[in-house]
Amino acid sequence: MSDGHGATPSTPPGWAENQPPPYPGQGGTPWASPGGTAQPAGQPPSDDVPAGQPAPPQGQPAFSPPGQAPPPPYGNAPPPPGQAPGWPPYGPPPQGGPAYGHAYGYRPPPQAMRPGIIPLRPLGLGDILDGTIKLIRSNPKATLGLSAIAAALGTLPVAIGQAVYYRSLGPLLANPASLESGADVPLGGLFAQFGGALVSLIMQFFLVTLLTGILTRVLGRAVFGGRITIGEAWRLTRSRLPALLGLAFLTGLVALLPLVLAVAIVVGLDLAGASVGAVLVAALVLGLAYIAYALFVSTRFALAAASVVLEGLGVVDAMRRSWRLVGGDFWRVLGILLLTQVLAAFLGGVLSVPVTIVSLVVSFGGQGSLTATVVTTILFTVGGIISSMITYPIQAGVNGLLYTDRRMRAEAFDLVLQTAAIDQQRLGWVTATADDLWHPSHAAGTTGPRPTGAPGAP
Question: Where is this region: Disordered (predicted)?
């Protein structure tokens, strides 16, 4: 039996002769207490334990070897001074956190995978807005370039109508005294302004639907960290353009028919000789009812464009798909869409203010001349393009990420995305087969053949 300070026949290889052997249970001799004798392995500990210190468990040393920290207390021993009860002796709990008493202290939950613009888990409002900004920054040519083309087409009618209106004011501006004599503003200019705005509104409705579908294809790759060019986005989406146009026409029809019916009722009351008060009350009630209806329908069908492009569905099937996805979280989707509209309108207004001021100065300063009219048209077009090329991608990105979020929550689609992201990380790039993952057959618990025309369909 050794005194605990010399080598023994059981010393493991690699240990120095003057180094103590390991603890009992590993083939070595236990440490001897200062001034006492060592206890063999498997024997009860000696009584040479300081007062107030609990006896160590069977087979464990009472004291630490020279030059090493003492072992942690056992059982219900009081903690060292300044240490919270229940915590291990090697550190205090996290600042401001509860004392969990876990052997290794508090550990935060693991972060979700984020190979691209969003974390692969159900998304919050901040994730959706941040992912939309990252979509624009990671694919600026595809997002801003396509939006600029759509904005130029959608802004041109309203710019022309505005220019015609300013030109019609030329005689009045050249002779301001005519305004004091009661001269009327030309109705032709007003009709041109109103007609241009109406045509532009209709065009923008179709253009935004098409743009949302095309940018959704860009988003499908950006979720995995991949990038896509304008040419590739167009090549992958052009076969879905008829379905997108049909979707825009059908949703517009569903939204406008009640409005036509409400206007017919109000006009009928007026022609029937109803009082002015009755007509106004009917118009107010029907107007509020239509606003509620329009919000309900637009929210229910907000995810249809993404379903047309990413899932290869037809018009009616895509509308049904969007209806089902939104149905599980209608009020949240409505709130995010309304907030997006407010943010987009505010941002578009801020961007278009300088150009609008300059165009007004040029128009009134030129007094309706041909040069002033042309310059005004150009300025209005440029202002509309600058404003819309920022707001269009924001609306399209939010709609696409809402579609992704609803699939994660309703179909556990985040598990599919995570598995695909791991495979792509192993390969080192984002493959084109990532586009096929968006089909509903890849969602948890869903099966079925691909529809005709879908990516990968026979």
Answer: 1-106
Secondary structure tally for the chain: helices H, strands E: 13, 0
Q: Phi first, then psi: what are they for 44, rounded to 5°?
A: -65, 145
C-alpha to C-alpha distance for 229 and 221, rounded to whole angstroms: 11
pLDDT band at 128 (very low <50, low <70, confident <90, very high): very high
* Nearest to 377, CA basis, from 176, 205, 192: 192
| Token pair for 300 | 């229910």
Residue 108: CB atoms within 10 Å: 6
Q: What is the DSSP string of 324-364?
A: HHHHTTHHHHHHHHHHHHHHHHHHHHHHHHHHHHHHHHHHH
What are the distances in angstroms from CA 342 to CA 95, 349, 390, 426, 448? Answer: 40, 11, 14, 41, 40
Structure tokens at 192: 């041109």
90-106 pLDDT, tens per residue? Answer: 445 555 545 454 445 55
Amino acid at 425: Q
Neighbours of 420 (CB within 10 A): 21
Residue 218 CA to residue 425 CA, distance in Å, equals 19
Amino acid 438: pLDDT: 85
Q: What integer pLDDT is reported at residue 283 of this predicted model?
A: 92
Q: 425: closest CA among 157, 180, 224, 205?
A: 224
Select from 449, 165, 402, 234 the least CA-distant residue to 302. 402
Using the structure block, give the residue that is written with the tokens 């000696």.
46
Q: How far apart are the first and last CA of the chain?
A: 82
Q: From CA 435, how far away is CA 302, in angstroms rounded?
A: 21
Q: Which pLDDT does position 165 carry in this prediction? A: 73
Predicted confidence band of residue 150 (pLDDT cuts 50, 70, 90): confident
pLDDT of residue 175: 59
Exposure string of 188-227, with b = 16+ CB inside 10 Å and e = fewer, is ebeebbeebeebbeebbebbbbbbbbbbbbbbbbbbbbbe
- Give the distance, in angstroms, between the CA of residue 195 and the centroid of all CA atoms in the same chain: 36
Closest CA to 337 of 302, 309, 288, 310: 302
CA distance 272 to 275: 9
pLDDT at 143 over 80: yes
Query: What pLDDT is attached to residue 121?
Result: 92
| pLDDT tens per residue across span 261-278 | 999 999 998 888 888 888
Model confidence pLDDT, tens digit, residues 177-210: 555 554 555 666 677 777 777 888 888 888 888 8
